[in-house]
# Entry
Amino acid sequence: MSPAHVVGWGKYVPERVLSNDDLSEMVDTSDEWIRTRTGIAERRVAEDGESTASMATRAAWRALRAAGVTPAQVDLIIVATATPDHAIPATACIVQDALGASNAAAFDLSAGCTGFVYALGVAADMVAARDGAGKKATAVVIGAETLSRFVDWTDRSTCVLFGDGAGAVVLQANGSPGGVLSTFLGADGSGGDLLYVPAGGSEEPASHRTVSQRLHYVRMRGREVFRFAVRAMPDAAQQVLEQAGLTPDDVDLLVPHQANQRILEAAGRALNLPPEKMYSNLERYGNTSAASIPIALCEAVEEGRISRDDVVVCVGFGAGLTWGATALRWSVPLPTAPPTAWGKARYRVWRGYASVRSLIRRLVRWLLSRSVKE
Ligand code: UT7
# Structure
């Protein structure tokens, strides 16, 4: 087994910006309250026609291009999301079709805002286990959310917090040391009711009553989640570092789940990390749940905050309750120039091919179904 490395990264956020001032015209809140209590200034909101799958696909294309990997090389696609396009099928299967990833297995993973860390851990183990016989096992791990469709825009205690977007990484085992060093995952279902969507699932299916009582929207006991988070984040980071034989002094950059600036600062203090070792882009995107860590990781790379051989720790917490962390040594060369026109054109061809492939497969299925006599 050889460890999995992050060899590509990409993000997509919707164009539409919703500022705190915009929100103060919708609910009884203010820019001052939101900034001082959370650190958020604005967030992105999906346009009509955009969804978790479409944003996940765009982030995945960018990650594949950064890695120089073709869709046909992908063995596994995991979409971490709490806001899938449908209950059935998995959003990851929609992404698999949109990428034309003909050799990939695909599934969704639901672990709230910790979803990306969970997915990274699962994918890293699968990639490392499948590596061998001259074949590079490859996984695309995506965190994607369209929370704007699940928040109650009349509830000021939740709607100011969340945003939409997607981030993706390509994981590959290439025989070299470094990469994902350790993973720690935790869960405590006794806290499930601190952050949940009451209806729309099998326990309480959609009905006129559930819709009129607004039970399909996110409900949260914010203060309790806050207290849980300030304990869980440093604890998960400590555990994953210990497993890797490292200490907080070895960390070059902590990429935490972007939920609340006060939570990030408390985690930084508990780990004795100076602010320059904590990545934050919360101000621009709010809390994008499972998408927040991969978007942050991607921006940290783009801003030159990560160098080769750095120790990077991703740490998250969220609904479930869940929490977890991944420690990795960034062992791949970082890009020195933007993608070339040829590089971009190559992936445009792949995108075209993926659309045609999907159409042909639907057509063949339709023809076969007509030829079968019952
Ligand atoms: O990814 C995991 C997801 N969740 C989280 O990470 C959330 C963790 N929790 C938090 O980030 C914070 O608890 C919040 C930002 C949600 C709330 O901050 P807080 O400092 O814990 O405020 P609070 O809930 O204790 O509310 C304080 C006051 C209340 O008024 P009263 O009862 O003191 O009169 C709220 O009604 O602030 C009021 N309030 C607001 N005021 C203006 C709550 N939301 C708003 C708002 N604008 N948007």
Notes: The chain has a mean pLDDT of 95.
